[in-house]
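Quick one:
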Amino acid sequence: MKILKFCPSCGKESLNWDGEKKWSCPNCNFRLYNNVAGAVAVVIRCGDEIYLTRRNQEPKKGKLDLAGGFVDPKESAEKTCKRELFEELQLEINVENLKYLTSLPNIYQYKEIDYNTIDLFFEYRVSEKFEVKIELSEISEVQWIPVKEMNLDELAFDSQKIFFKEYLKTF
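Output:
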């Protein structure tokens, strides 16, 4: 993890990292916490198939991923699902049809900083498969994958690998 060195309050090269979640400055008593960030991941399911995206940017560029993203300030997890599915896939959903499944901790490394996240998993079932216009800046492709053909090693994030290990047992 990239360690911040300069205190944003006093400007001195005195910022100390506690190794878990906090930077502190002994000169001016400034504290900066690397708190857990909320993120959503949506399992779009049609029968025994799951709709997955392929990441088009770091981290984990080229790996399979669930549609989703970070929760914005003053936004519910359900509203985040709706916003992210529209931003990434141009898919309009009814949040009343989202089903919360579970949460798992994860680490999202971005530009050499490890962000601790709590990934909230939702399921959104559809009665028939669809194709959408994808946002190529974030996603390089989308695909329906039969659950029996899922390769957990192809998934981008550890939390999703852990999630699918249990989720796939329900089929």
